[in-house]
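Q: Give me the 3D complex with adenosine-5'-triphosphate.
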Amino acid sequence: MRYSQIFVPTLREAPGDAAIASHQLMFRTGMIRRLANGLFAYLPVGLRSLRKVERIAREEMDAIGSQEIKPTVMAPGELWKESGRWETMGEGLLRVKNRLGGDFVVSPTAEEVFTALIRDELSSYRQLPLSLYQINTKYRDEIRPRYGVMRGREFIMKDAYSWHCDEASLDKTYQDMGKAYRRIFKRCGLSVFSVRADSGTMGGSGSEEFMVESVIGDNTLLLCKDCGYAANVEKAGCKPDYQVPASLNAAKALADSVPPPERIDTPAVKTIEELCAFLKVDARSFIKTLIYRAVNVELDLSTAPGMVKSEKRRAPSGETHRGGAPESYAEAFFAVCVRGDLDVNEVKLASILKASEVALAADTDVERFTGAPVGFAGPLGLTTIPVIADESVTAMHDGICGALAKDQHYAHVAYGRDFSPWLVADVRVVKSGDCCPLCGGELYEKKGNELGHIFKLGYKYTASMGVSYLDENGKNRVPIMGSYGIGIDRTLASIIEEHHDERGIIWPMTVAPYHVIIIPIKYEGSVKIAADQIASTLENTGIEVLLDDRNERPGVKFNDADLLGIPCRVVIGDKNLALDNPQVEVKHRNENDSRLVPLNMVAHELTAFVYGKITQLNL
Ligand code: ATP
Ligand code: MG
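A: Here is the predicted complex, encoded as C-alpha cells.
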C-alpha cells in the first residue's frame, strides 16, 4: 500500500479531552474520529488493527468449537420482555419503536436473541452442548462514555453463548472459553489476568473477568500475596477477623455478662467519627445501620417484616411470557447493619436480594422507616423494614447503635440477645490488608480494566424464555446456559496502552496495521526501484507493507512511522545504495538504533522476522 493513497489523517496534537495514551494515539494516528459522545468511526488504519483483533478472537472461538452466526443488532423488544430485562435493564438499554409502533432494542448484549434462536430448534439432548457466537455491534447508553473507545456507547463485542444438559458440560465449555480468552489476549500481546467475579468462598468459580492492570480501570481488584486468589472487590470475600459464634445461642451466651441495652444521649453527634470521639471508643464498637432502597427484588420476602408497603408483582409481565420467572417486588427497603469500621458492598447486597438496583434510601424514606432523622438508625426495635446484618455483626455482643430517635443511641447492644436480623449475609466491602478467604494471606489492591467476562448463567434465560429439550428418558428438561464476552475495541485500546512510548504506538506484530514501513528518502530513481522491489518481494510472501511514497522531508516520514507504530522500518537512501554492496537501513520500532542490511537480504530477513514474531505470540 502506498502511503499517499491511504486516508490516514495524522495529527500533531490529540484533542483536549483525550486523557489516556490510547485515546490520544488513536486520534493522532488517524485510526478513529469522533462522531458524537461515545460514537467513533474507524478510519482505514484503525480498522485494519481492529479486524486483526476480531480475527484472533474468531480463530480461537472456532478452535474450541463455538460456531459463528450473525444475528441482527436490532432485537425484538418482545424477547426482552420475556426475559424480564425490558423492565430491569434501566436507562442503559436503548429502546426504539419502528413505524408500526413495535418495540425494539439496540442490542447491548444478546442472551435473549441467541436463546430465542435455539429455542425453536432444540428438541433433543443429542443437540447439546451447543455453543454459538457473534462478533457484532453493541450499543449501551452509557451515562459517561470516556477514554475514547475504552468506554464508548457503540462498540464491537465478541459474545458467545452455550447450552448444556448438565453442569459438568457447562463447566467444560466454561473452562475452554477461559483458555481461549487467555490465548486471545496473549496473541494480542496483552498481559491479562483473571479475577473471580464471584465470592470464591464457596469453591469453584462461576464467573471470571479478564483484566488488564490500569490506573484508569473502573475495577478495584483484591489479590492475595500468598496464593492465586484474585477477585473483583464487587464480589471479593475475606476471612473474618473476629470469632463467628456457632449459633444464635452461642451469640447470646457471649452477651451473658453484658448489661442490658442502655439509651444514651448523643447530642448533635451524627457520623461514626463524631461518635467515636464523643464516646471515646473505636469504630469497631458500632453497629452501623444504613437504609437501602432496592428495585425489582426477586428474593422471596414473604417472611420479611414490613413488606405491605411494597408492590408485589410477577415479572416479567406481558402476554408473551412463557417461563417461570420468579415473583419480584418493584421496590423494597432494607436496613443493612455492618460493623462500624466496615462498609456495605452494594453489589453483594444487590446480588443477595436478586435486585436490579440498590442505593441508599432518600432522607425522607429513612425518616419514614426509622422515625428519626438520618444518623440514628439501628436494628433494635426496627420493625418497619427487614434488617440484614453483615456477618461481622454476629460477633458483636456489646455494641453501640442508633436508637431510632434524634440524638440518641443504645449502648450494650448484643446480636442475638437484643435483636435478630431477618437475614445474616456477607455484605461487606473487602479491602487491602484483609485476609484472603482461601489461605488467610494478606490481600492487596490493584486497579483493573475489564476486557472480557465469562459467566455461568444457570437457568435464568432458558427458564424465563421457556427453552426445553427431551433427555435420554424422554423427559422434558431446561438446558443450562453460559455467556462469554470480549470487548474488541477495548482490547485494541488496551494493546496501545501497554505498547507505546512518547513517540507513538509500538504494535505487537499480530495486530499491527502493517508489518513493515518502507521509507525512501526521495521516492525517485534507483531508490524508487529498490523500494518498489522490496515492497513487492515482501508482499509476495504475505507481509503487509506501507510504502511512504510521499514527497515529505525524511524527518516527517520518520515521525509518522514512529507514531503509527509499524514494527519494522526500512530506510532507503542514495548513498547506501551506491555502495559496492548496496545496503538499506533497518530499524525495529522498539529499538533505538538502525542497522545496515544488504539490499538483497532485506526482504528475506524481514519476512523471517515478521513470521517469527507472529509465531512467538501465537504459540
Ligand atoms: P463494564 O463493567 O466495563 O461496564 P460490563 O461488565 O458491563 O463492562 P459485559 O457486559 O461483561 O461488560 O461485556 C463484555 C465486554 O464488553 C466487557 O468485558 C468489555 O470489554 C466490553 N464492554 C462493555 N461495555 C463497553 C463499553 N461501553 N465500551 C467498550 N467496551 C465495552
Ligand atoms: Mg462484565
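A quick observation: The chain is about 25% helix and 25% strand.
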